[in-house]
Task: structure prediction
Amino acid sequence: MELITHLIDIVLHLDKFLPQLVAEYGNLIYVILFLIIFCETGLVVAPFLPGDSLLFVAGGVAAAGGMDITVLSCSLFVAAVLGDNVNYWIGRTFGHRVFKWEQSRFFNRAAFDKTHSYFEHHGGKTIIIARFMPLIRTFSPFVAGVAEMSYRRFLPLDILGGALWIFSLTLLGYFFMQVPLIRNNLSLFVILIVVVSLLPACIAWLRSRSAKVRA
Result:
């Protein structure tokens, strides 16, 4: 419980933690952020890692001179694409085993089922849309692999989705950080980003629950 509380605190106060990491680790921060994005997109056991808010704040830190925005954006784009591809091939190779993980403490079966249902309804475009949706973002490439989606179809959609996700959020952070209102209230905007990014999943859950009640 203490670990979860600490992680939530980090996510909600990235504007404080990230500059500290930049000051402490220098250019190694690119490697640290690369690994976070890679794990968040590439490992189904790591959907709790920050994504949208991290990209926005990282762009803001770059605007303040802490990092180079080009190196930051390009390295995280590579991390996002590599992570999704690893996740896809894990799902394609070992996906049939996930149905035996009902009681696993490291695997969110409910999130997997929701992503699978979303994937069935929206098909290939889920690969792009899911980039902007926590939890679903982590499970989408895995589900694509489990469903044996053609890799020739998956790869270009994944690259496009990764580019839209990484470059839009880092550049938004980079430019908006230069607006005094946002720079002085960054913690509130981070919370807003987290809430907005969770809205689609919450709406989908409410619709599903409503449908069950009507049934």
